[in-house]
């Protein structure tokens, strides 16, 4: 049995609350159980220097964790004077995942900056970030469409992410911290609403894992993302009505 | 009339919610109108190097603002590679204010680290931080007392803070961002429950201000802090019961 | 009695020597007893990027302390790779204080950069810096007027600063290091020649302080600044004649 | 047809030259076509601070690219003052991959530091690094065994890595730069000699990719790694004889 | 006798291999015995900001050492976040030495960036770098002439460098690491093909040295550079034919 | 004729004023014409980590230039976040020069830190720094001897430095800024009182220079240093009597 009493195919309670910041063009507070990430989308009218005069836009993401989001307090990255390798790895993944479902030409010379700040961490912060960030971004761009700023919506598809792992030799969906820190293998899947794969990251932690295990992990990811797509749609609809 | 329709002596709606983080030893989400700061107190069993073997403890604070806490997105300090002068000034003030009401000997060789992270900003983030940080710290230390780790409570007094300013030539209490960015003078007061002054910072923004104006600003601060002390007591009581 | 045998209302010996650097547009070596700060004003024909094409000028300040300005050698900030929070706090204060008495429009698109470098420290370096910086800046701008570069003098008023504190429970003027490091309360006052307040910073060090104590500290600051304004005028006059 | 005239299942010419540095405990210059990486293993008698007194050892890796390893000169990271997110991501991957096949207890309180420096880049530098790094590490540890410093060889298995991608809609093995920069999907596989998976990283570049494509990419990786394992064995044998 | 069995006037085996990088406009792998430095010349079509619109070009150099180029592994400068004082000193010297023999006007608004990366170090890395860098630079500029991009060759002369030192009280040519780390005096000479001096750096290590010793060291440097000029010419000729 | 009307063999007016800082163990304000450097020696009871328990001491130096020490204001290194290559090169030279005349064993496990801060610059700041630093250091160590802390004086000899250059094709002694910035060759000589050479740095600026020119420059340096040794002795004597 899992420490959280879930079945292997069961997600934690997932919520996607929109309208949580009065300034950002799109916002979503995503929770996966005790994991809580604030995702804010800012639309800026200029693009990075290397992209100017290309007629295209850009989507980028930054990720951070509050120092006491975790069991023991971590060092504040701003005080340390740099972002850790882990932070950079995660924010690059979030940006890549979102760009995979955006038509950068339709966006025009605009930049969407997504800030994913982890308020509380209990495993799966990067996949929760991607899932919530899509809602924040789609809200912001949806508003630009309804305001007539954009003629066509640059959002091509949904994108969501979930982690899966081998815990006590059984593949399970959506690891919490207790499972994650003891898993034999850990993996993250970023999938689109139309069923294609955007990113797979799978790592053997204590031992290598087998192809059969991988296939089951992938199957669990598909189950999890199917649920997340439904929740994203509902959240976006609510946000655009508000 | 003030942009927010308040009287000169009126605070914004202030809330102090405790128990908002499952890991921190003490926590308080403080709001002053649209300003929202998450204050978390972490108790660590070691003190900074320069303090070892003195038998005393230490209280320190770090302050940060989420990039999109403000109207337009600011640069993430972790990405910029350093904390701004403003950030450092504020976190030094928070630390000083809290240490003024703590008996560092009674604390023993422990460090309390307070993280004040601004989730949303609408003026007065440093004074809200101090007010909320005291609740988080007092909660954490109150628990150490009830657990028997500390024999006497190191908390000597309450401390709260509020800003006042001269807006359209009238002294008013608790400036929001609209007032703050147009004020003739801006000031912050850190006062204790027993009526002493811990810190005054008063600055002429567009012009110097007069002694008479200062006296009125100080009077408003006393009115505001009196309300805050009542709210702090209620919040702490609720937190320690929980 | 004070360690320096002064009365509570007595400044240390204060000198303001001008013409101490052959390149700077204005210069002043200010001493308050053993505290010695070299204040140099540089006039540059361009303003910071965010200010271009506004028709206005800017005044900014940088502060530094030579490593062995103090009893025990401190770390060189250039070697440490960053300015301390204290340094940034002080240089922001100096810049704000000077801008309070300058008409930035009359200055035109020029920047005055003030460098305050502490050659020797014995308490009160930030207030000495402000006092000397005004002389350096006024010298530089006075020359621009007499050279016909500026039509009207952008200097609107004098500004000077002094520290006061509660030492052995008695409010005293112009703390030296020995008093400063043992004071119950420490405060800095930045006042203009016409009697308005530019900045007050008052901090309880060992204990909170009372309103009555604050009122006496403020009175002492007025006494001290009155003397400083006379000395500034004489120094400026001498500098402009030279 | 591929730009390099290879079949989809064909690796570039791969060489693993050992004994290429006179100081390092193990060394391997690995080439995959025009990609050339110098992998050096240094054995140190102390472990990172957080690992002291655990009786275990550690394996870590650093990665760098000479500024003109690429078509146009890149900025030197030492001059820029920091390692890019990409660099950190890669060196974390190399370290993780090597640790997956080392018994850290058998290593004792020693650290193996692997330096992978890219002398010339033509795609696949991270997978070449892992493949060569294993040879360098196994050489160093093999020597420690034959010198009697270690009783048992901490190397548990071989580990090698290869990239595969979808280029012009066909899955191909071992992308060179021309393919890599135009691929629809790009992926890296780190596999062990005994057939388990250590790491999979698969990314859709221009579009998401399908599960069928992924399965073929994985199959190609197994074909490629089988060849690499043979070459690693031969190179290690030669190195230990020398 | 010298540890390497050389006579006092004898260089180590010196090789200058060109064509060692497929992207750089000029390249040379220089070896002095076990010292091995990769020198790559990159030609860029823009100059540093302070030089724009002057009609002149610029030559600059960067220097680095692979972490395990030495007996014990050194810290990677990119990971440390800055270049050491020694590195900066050396790269400034290389740049100055090369500029001494280049007509910057004839170069036009172009920049030649020389990267000298030490693959293996056994003393004399800075002098080997200068010697090899000249070959790389001259190759790159020779190609620009033969391609008709430049009308006249900006190379005015050859430049080469060698170290000499006082080892066991005898002046010797071209110190290796064993000699260098025990020398009484160490010196570097940068000379031109036409016999002028570009740079002398001579340092007493364990003791001051005499004028007579200096004169002998200088004589040895002239002997060494004469050999190096012959080898440079041959290497350049080969490179331009290729 | 030289711009300053000096003969080729003539130093600028040189003064060495001691007792200029009330905290430093040794101090010397050195001027060479308009060049003014404050040299302070601090004696610390601990040595750098890599030197602990060797029974030896260490001498090190730091160099800085006030931002407006020069004609146009330079950037403050502490604000820039790093020391320039030039600064590091100079402070390494000063440290090396002083260590050449100190018996580090006789010093015991103590460190002398020399701070050379340029108050005003008109050429020759590094050589003035060395010349003044010796006085500051010798004062500090002389006091330790007279206080009985040290049994033997670790100072083995005097060390002084001067620059020489080829200006308008004539070798001249002690370049000021006007000469320095137009010189054909520039060189610095660090010599000991007993006539040995500690360091020579000679650089062709606009052209290579000849051996004959070098010989004359060296001769001028000997003339200059002879004068400096006399002045150093007098300054030290005065300082130790005070």
Describe this structure in words.
Six copies of one chain form a homohexamer. Chain A has 242 residues and is α+β, with helices and mostly antiparallel strands. Chain A has a single domain (14-241), classed as 2-Layer Sandwich (Ribosomal Protein S5, domain 2), CATH 3.30.230.70. Chain A is built from six helices and nine strands. Chain A has helices at residues 77-80, 85-99, 104-107, 125-146, 177-180, 211-241, and strands at residues 14-18, 26-32, 35-44, 58-65, 111-120, 159-167, 170-173, 185-192, 197-204. In chain A, the strands form two sheets. A five-stranded mixed β-sheet of chain A has the order 1-2-3-5-4. In chain A, strands 7-6-8-9 form a four-stranded antiparallel β-sheet, with helices on both faces. In chain A, β8 (185-192) and β9 form a beta hairpin. The radius of gyration of chain A is 18 Å and the shape is globular. The first copy, chain A, starts with 13 loop residues before the first strand and ends with a helix. Chains in contact: A-B, A-D, B-C, C-F, D-E, E-F. β9 (197-204) of chain B pairs antiparallel with β9 (197-204) of chain C.
